[in-house]
Design goal:
37% strand, 113 residues, alpha+beta
Length: 113
């Protein structure tokens, strides 16, 4: 997948989530621990969103590419993000969601990690 396709998938996810009432905090947060695709605010909850995009399903569905190892990296990077933004991970409501885009179909999975 190209960077342009990845960015298009992330932008599609941001647009969808804004329509659901979430507020964008940042996009493409990078740290030594990994990268966060999107961080949004859902009421009091800080939400990290991993976006997986597949143009075709011949090699599997987008959601299948969110592995346990990937979730561990996301959690480590998310903790770094929270600390960088003076948020205590122990007392801040938070969750990790996945937006899986398979061609024209978008699926929002909440609280996966």
């Amino acid at each position: 997948m190209s960077v342009l396709q990845g960015n298009a998938g992330e932008n599609q996810a941001v647009t969808y989530l804004k329509k659901q009432g979430l507020i964008l905090r940042c996009q493409n947060f990078r740290t030594r621990r990994g990268e966060l695709d999107i961080v949004m605010q859902d009421g009091d909850t800080v939400v990290c969103i991993e976006v997986k995009y597949r143009k075709h399903q011949q090699y599997g569905h987008a959601v299948e590419f969110v592995t346990a190892k990937k979730l561990q990296r996301i959690q480590a990077a998310f903790t770094h993000y929270l600390l960088d933004n003076n948020l205590n991970p122990a007392s801040t409501p938070l969750r990790i969601d996945v937006i899986a885009i398979d061609g024209p179909d978008l699926q929002w999975l909440k609280n996966v990690g």
